[in-house]
Automatic annotation (TrEMBL), chain A:
Endpoints of the signal sequence: none
Native source organism of the sequence: Actinacidiphila alni
Keywords: Membrane, Transmembrane, Transmembrane helix
Protein name (database record): ABC-2 type transport system permease protein
Highest rank taxon of the organism: Bacteria
TM region(s), chain numbering: 30-55, 67-85, 150-176, 242-263
From TrEMBL, chain B:
Name this polypeptide is given: ABC-2 type transport system ATP-binding protein
Gene Ontology process terms (BP): response to antibiotic
GO terms of molecular function: ATP binding; ATP hydrolysis activity
Species this chain originates from: Actinacidiphila alni
Primary location class: membrane
Top-level taxon of the source organism: Bacteria
Keywords: Antibiotic resistance, ATP-binding, Nucleotide-binding, Transport
Residues in ABC transporter domain copies: 18-263
Membrane-topology annotation of the record: Peripheral membrane protein
Location of this chain's protein in the cell: Cell membrane
SMART domains in the cross-refs: AAA
GO cellular component, one term: plasma membrane
Automatic annotation (TrEMBL), chain C:
Name of the protein described by the UniProt record: ABC-2 type transport system permease protein
Source species, domain of life: Bacteria
Record-linked Pfam families: ABC2_membrane_6 (PF06182)
TM ranges: 22-42, 120-140, 146-175, 187-212
Organism this protein belongs to: Actinacidiphila alni
Classification lineage: Bacteria, Bacillati, Actinomycetota, Actinomycetes, Kitasatosporales
Keyword terms: Membrane, Transmembrane, Transmembrane helix
PANTHER family, alphabetized: INTEGRAL MEMBRANE PROTEIN (PTHR36832:SF2), SLR1174 PROTEIN-RELATED (PTHR36832)
Family annotation (InterPro entries): ABC-2_transporter-like
Signal peptide bounds: none
Amino acid sequence: MRSGAYESVRTYRLIVGMWVRSTMAYRTSFVLTALGNLAATGLDFVTILLMFSHITVLGGFTLAQVAFLYGTTSTSFGIADLLLGSMDRLGRRIRDGTLDTLLLRPAPVLAQVAADRFALRRLGRITQGLAVLGWALAHAGIDWTPVRVLLVPLTVLCGAAIFCAVFVAGGAFQFWAGDASEVQNSVTYGGNTMLQYPPAIFARELVRGVTFVVPLAFVNWLPALRVLGEPDPLGLPGWVDFASPAVAALCCALAGLAWRAGLRSYRSTGS
Amino acid sequence: MTVPVSEAATEAVTDTVIELDGVEKVFDVRRKAGPLRRLRTQVRAVDGISFTVPRGEIVGYIGPNGAGKSTTIKMLTGILNPSGGRIRICGLDPTRDRTRLARRIGVVFGQRTTLWWDLPLRDSYELVRRMYRIDDARYAANLAACVELLDLGPLLEVPVRQLSLGQRMRGDIAAALLHDPEVLYLDEPTIGLDVISKTRVRDFLRRVNAERGTTVLLTTHDLTDIEQLCRRVMVIDHGRLMYDGDLGGLHAVGDSERTLVADFARELPPVEIEGARCVKVDGPRQWLAFPAQASAAPLVAAVAAHYPLVDLSVREPAIEDVIARMYGEDADRT
Amino acid sequence: MRGGFYAAVAVRGFRRYATYRTATLAGVFTNTVFGFIIAYSYEALWGQRPHLGGYTEAQALTYVWIGQALLQTMALMAGGFEEELAERIRSGDIAVDLYRPADLQGWWLSADLGRACFHLLGRGVAPMVCGALVFELALPTNPVTWLLFLVSVTLGVVVSFAIRFLVALSSFWLLDGAGVSQVVFLAGLFFSGMLLPLTVFPGWLGVLARALPWSAMLQVPADVLLGRHEGTGALLALAFQAGWAAALLLTGRALQAVAARRVVVQGG
Ligand SMILES: Nc1ncnc2c1ncn2[C@@H]1O[C@H](COP(=O)(O)OP(=O)(O)O)[C@@H](O)[C@H]1O
Ligand SMILES: [Mg+2]
């Protein structure tokens, strides 16, 4: 028997291939929506530009520094959204019974659900996030050291992993409360919005919450403070800026456990 | 009533493919009972079912709506875990070995398609090929056989969304058989199909069973499916096995009747004919009931010979009727 | 008689969403979280630039919570009828609907008004109360202002409906409706003023954004409640909304007629 991870990736790729082909059946529609998506996700950043047309510093951060936050979280979120963006449809699949057909295949269910409705148009957000990140790297006046250079891609990848874990945990949650799938949005979309702004503008309890409870701060805030050379409003020890990989691994492990428990519950209750 | 259940003693001799022993499924259901109060009740969807099916048999699994048929099938495939009892399919425990079992069984849910809506039928089969790791020669042979027998040739390049219900069902059945499953479960495969599609599906299942020795378990509301395919029938109601035996026995127990619906050229007094009785008249249309075992052909010939027949159709006895009668008998006896 | 029918459809729309209690709670939670995130960013912004866009800090914060109250009411992030209608178009069930005695647009509009009414009460009030507990808001005490606000919200819902109706009808021509609606929703979030009040937009962008129909969904009702339109100004604001509502509904009608002809030609 081949390993579970290999099977998952293989299944994921097979199903993604089917969705990509389905999309390509309507090529014009795809090109239009991909371009539209690219432009529309950019409006988020336009909002920040508009704010900075009235001010020069927000929460102690310059525009380029905020753009760095924006670029990292948007790219991370975009990757997670591309990879597992349809997890929120699980509740619907449970309600209309189509989850059963996935359980009939000799393949991991999580990989099948993750690949569900895979949409290449979601590349729009990643592209736009990377563009802003590129601009920010050039203009944020970062004092480059090898550590900082390494920290940037690491931040983006760990951030993506943390968001992926949130998507999977959100999916698992729908096994028990399919109707409440919207709560997931407050962590995913809400988290992404929050991480675009400097931590200093938020109430301290909120920052503590997203550091210790839902560890979104590790997506970009903590490593970004290190890269940008800004002080940490919570005054945490310096090594936490490098803790993102460990936190991401922990999140993924917990999300995996939640998913298993959810699937087990489904198989015993059928709903 | 004594239920003739297949004997456990034969198990060692024949090759048993499906084996259930005291299988139960209990659902917790929360119902609204007033604006804030919720009542928790338990639904015993499957309530202690035991049976075995030897390799190569076609079994009909019938019962009224909500009897527990689909729930049984979901447990046999590993979608749902039983709350009690023991299941072995090809020697595997569906709860623990879901993915391993998936390679050895085929499943068709009548109301649910596994085909890809926007893609040509062939693409769905390609996915099956890769997901089940079917080797090329076997895939080619199986696909060719399905295409020929189910008449899928002209449909292979058509996007599934453009297929009719009957075409799609044929497509789904083929998809479930490409990996040579040892067991095939069909949950209401003929629901909503026209007569021609139904006939084609039945012929196909019969051949698959005869040529490949595939074991088939089939639920349906159409007694003709059962009559034409299954020698053995199981009747389930309220999650309990009420009958397990051959179809003839079921008819004898149920004493069911079919109905010939005849449209005449004009309004007539109730028709009188040997072997049938008129049960309803509505203008030029009359309903003639005749025993389910009797052939319809001589009756039609006799009616056509004596009356100005314009159009006719034969209604099969509804399974619900058969079962209701069965209980009637049951009540009479006790 | 017909009025009664559409009222019944609206009541059904209200009830339908009222049954999803967990979903409503989840939504309230999400709206509140978003409200907090945006409120803190506005606090930082208005802390540096008091009176930006003509709002005091309290008004800007009130604007945030009005936005959260109206987010679902205006179905700014989907969640209304449009997916269902698009699905009916894609599956071909629409052919049946077109031959029903009830008017297609009227039927869905009534249902959507019922939905909006529920979302205003069920998902709008609670986040607003949460916001008022934590931040200092500038809510009016004059009942006339509240009444005008309700009228403005109703008109805003009609504009929102009319736009989503057009989006759903696009499924007749574009089979990947999800992409179109996503683009329209993202644009809607921006141009309704949900991300930043349109009064803060500089120069021509501000003028354009305030003239587009999306401003009828949040900017106008918010300004009515914040008392920035008074007397004839308020009437003009409502007329602006009504104008867009009428124009978009008529466009929808025209498009529906074209689509209906197409259905007849193709036989569904
Ligand atoms: N997931 C579930 N949760 C609660 N009750 C269920 C569930 N699935 C089925 N049931 C109940 O179990 C009974 C049997 O259902 P089912 O197996 O679908 O019947 P059939 O297929 O024979 O019509 C019904 O009363 C049904 O309401
Ligand atoms: Mg069933």
